[in-house]
Every structure is written in C-alpha cells, then in structure tokens.
Specification:
single chain, 244 residues, six-stranded parallel sheet, globular, disordered N terminus
C-alpha cells in the first residue's frame, strides 16, 4: 500500500484530495520507446486506469476524473481513434469486474458525438452503478473544457430566452449545473504525467483553484507510488483560495 498507509499520525498529517483529475498522457510515447504501435500503449494505459482507480478508492478518495478522449483527439489517425473506441467498448463490456469495488461510473463530454452502441453501454454502466457508495469515477470522453463552457452558455441562454431564468440573477451555481460535468465539483489536485506541463483544455471551470502536479512518468508506467507522491506533494501545499 501507499506511504500514508504506513505513516502514523505523529509522523505525518496527510490531506487527502477529495477530487483528483488526471490527464492520462504518454501512452503513444511509451509504445514508441518499445518499438510497439501506439495502440499498444492505450491498451496498457487502460489497465493502469483500472489499477489507479482501485488504489485511490482504497485510500478513500471521493472522486477521480480522467481525461480519456478530448474533442481534439479526433484529429489523430483513424486507426488510433478506432482502437481507443474499442478499448472503451471492451472495458464497458466487462464492467462487472470493476463494479466489485463499489465504484460509481459516470461519463462527461459531448456523448452525442459517439457511436450509439457505445452511448448505450455508457448509459447502462451509469445506471447499474448509480447506487454504489465508493469512489465516483468520471471518464471524460469527447470532452473539451471550452466546449463544455460553451455548452453551458447555450443552455443558460435558452433558459433566459424562454423565461426560466433571469440574466441578471445568474450565479456560478447556474453555470456549474449547466456543465457536462455538473456533479464533478471543484478539482483539488490535477495530475499530468508524461512530462508536459499544461492542462490541455481539461476541466477549465472546475480547476480554477486546483493544485497542478506534473511528473515525467508516462501513464502506462504510472502506479500507486506515483499517486502517493502526488498526494504527498498536495499535502504540503498551502491552499489559501485568494486569502492570506
């Protein structure tokens, strides 16, 4: 288990993030380093996703949101896109194994842009895990932060137009409730492995006060010890939220 499972209260005070977001980066480069097709990296990365979910759930993390497929990822080679969609589909078909850990599964993004069969598998996964009481796992698929905010603006504009809301009385809560990820809540810790130091249009609204943790480990090599390191770093942060 992790470092904070071994330390006593006297040795360390661990602040566990309620909501951890992860940009799963580096699958393609991991495969290239091994002279494998990029698709092999995505297959291994999917297994790492499951392992990290189970580990975080055992620690008591309330929510994790993973950047699985962005609105920009459609620009990738068709073979790679097809493989990613197959990985999602295969994973959802064996969701029963994942459910044993009592984790709730949700999907965020413009899901209408996905294959109808995949959409139905997603809806069934959400329905069948809705009453679970463990960690909530959000998978962002066909997701972009700017697209999400634009979606919220359009939704609220329509509500104002038909008289359901007043433009002068709109609140941050109204915006939040109109997002794809309306139930995700604010991000406490955003982790990006893979060496890049940007958030790449991920959870822009929710990450306003997130602590940003970057590491060089490629996602297929990311394990419990890497998550421990990120949480330990987070525990040392002084989160003032604009105060002193």
């Amino acid at each position: 288990m992790g470092w904070f499972k071994k330390k006593t209260v006297a040795q360390a005070t661990v602040v566990l993030p309620r909501h951890i977001a992860v940009v799963m980066d580096g699958n393609g480069r991991w495969a290239k380093k091994r002279a494998l097709p990029r698709t092999a990296g995505h297959t291994v990365g999917a297994k790492v996703f499951e392992d990290i979910c189970r580990y975080a759930n055992s620690l008591g993390v309330q929510t994790m949101t993973f950047y699985a497929f962005s609105t920009e990822n459609w620009k990738r080679p068709k073979e790679e896109v097809d493989t990613l969609m197959k990985v999602f589909r295969d994973y959802l078909k064996r969701i029963e194994q994942f459910k044993k850990d009592n984790m709730r599964l949700r999907f965020v993004g413009d899901l209408q842009g996905l294959d109808p069969q995949l959409q139905e598998l997603m809806r069934e996964a959400e329905r069948s895990s809705a009453d679970f009481t463990g960690m909530t796992v959000n998978l962002a698929i066909n997701y972009g932060g700017r697209d999400e905010i634009l979606h919220a603006v359009r939704t609220l504009s329509q509500q104002v137009k038909i008289g359901e809301k007043s433009a002068d009385q709109l609140t941050e809560a109204d915006v939040n409730n109109s997002l794809y990820s309306d139930s995700c809540g604010d991000v406490d810790l955003l982790i990006r492995p893979g060496g890049e130091q940007r958030i790449s249009n991920f959870l822009l609204w929710q990450s306003a006060y997130a602590e940003l943790y970057f590491c060089d480990t490629l996602w297929p090599d990311f394990g419990p010890k890497d998550l421990d390191s990120a949480i330990e770093w987070y525990s040392k942060r002084n989160r003032r939220f604009g105060g002193v």
